[in-house]
Backbone:
């Protein structure tokens, strides 16, 4: 059960949604986000289109005009997920931020589980781990091994035990974006985020989430080079961002 007093202190949640060529999923995904239970918090939705070549920008503009909760950014140049998120963070007015991918791999119905540790347990950051769930759609085993390798390597550097640093679902208090402007342009954001919140010595929590992974044929975009970038960034960011410990 969530803490009513804590909800009164934390009044708004910002849901930040990066999008690139997701016209097929946008309507259903936004419907789920609009209907999602956020445990009494006011809701704002910020969608950032990263120069999609399909009709995602038209759909986003239509959705934004139909729902007062939605704000949007239409980028003219594709820069990557990390850059899109940073643009979205600059518009956030919420006390809590949640990152939501624009596909349907993760389910907004699980927002209460993600929010409860912040609202009731005093946590600062919550990861929605795809590997704590006992049941999930089967997904690429090589991708799973790469994720586990990167997560374990990150854990060695940060000394924080996590099971899934590459998950989309990261929920956090706004002090994270108040203290740090993210520099990673692409999927390296996941590594940079983990390094930053670990170096800030914030209270971090993991909850299981249900995962319906897509194949590359269905539009999945992360690839081998993103894994190489993540490997480099684990080492680089952990050396550079130790400034937060001073």
Residues:
């Amino acid at each position: 059960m969530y803490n009513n007093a804590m909800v009164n202190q934390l009044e708004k949640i910002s849901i930040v949604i990066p999008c690139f060529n997701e016209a097929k999923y946008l309507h259903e995904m936004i419907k789920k986000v609009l209907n999602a239970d956020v445990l009494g918090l006011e809701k704002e939705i910020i969608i950032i289109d990263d120069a999609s070549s399909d009709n995602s920008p038209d759909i986003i503009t239509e959705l934004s005009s139909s729902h007062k909760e939605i704000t949007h950014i239409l980028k003219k140049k594709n820069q990557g997920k990390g850059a899109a998120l940073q643009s979205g963070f600059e518009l956030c007015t919420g006390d809590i931020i949640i990152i939501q991918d624009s596909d349907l791999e993760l389910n907004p119905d699980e927002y209460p589980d993600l929010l409860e540790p912040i609202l009731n347990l005093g946590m600062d950051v919550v990861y929605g781990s795809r590997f704590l769930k006992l049941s999930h759609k089967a997904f690429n085993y090589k991708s799973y091994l790469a994720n586990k390798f990167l997560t374990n390597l990150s854990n060695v550097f940060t000394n924080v035990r996590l099971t899934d640093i590459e998950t989309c679902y990261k929920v956090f208090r706004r002090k994270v974006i108040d203290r740090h402007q993210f520099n990673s342009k692409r999927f390296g954001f996941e590594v940079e985020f983990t390094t930053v919140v670990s170096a800030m010595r914030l209270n971090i929590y993991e909850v299981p989430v249900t995962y319906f992974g897509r194949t590359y044929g269905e539009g999945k975009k992360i690839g081998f080079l993103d894994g190489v970038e993540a490997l480099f960034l684990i080492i680089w960011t952990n050396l550079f961002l130790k400034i937060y410990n001073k």
User: Anything to note?
Assistant: The first helix runs from residue 4 to 9. The longest strand covers residues 12-19. The chain has a mean pLDDT of 87. Residues 192 and 237 are 6 Å apart (CA to CA).
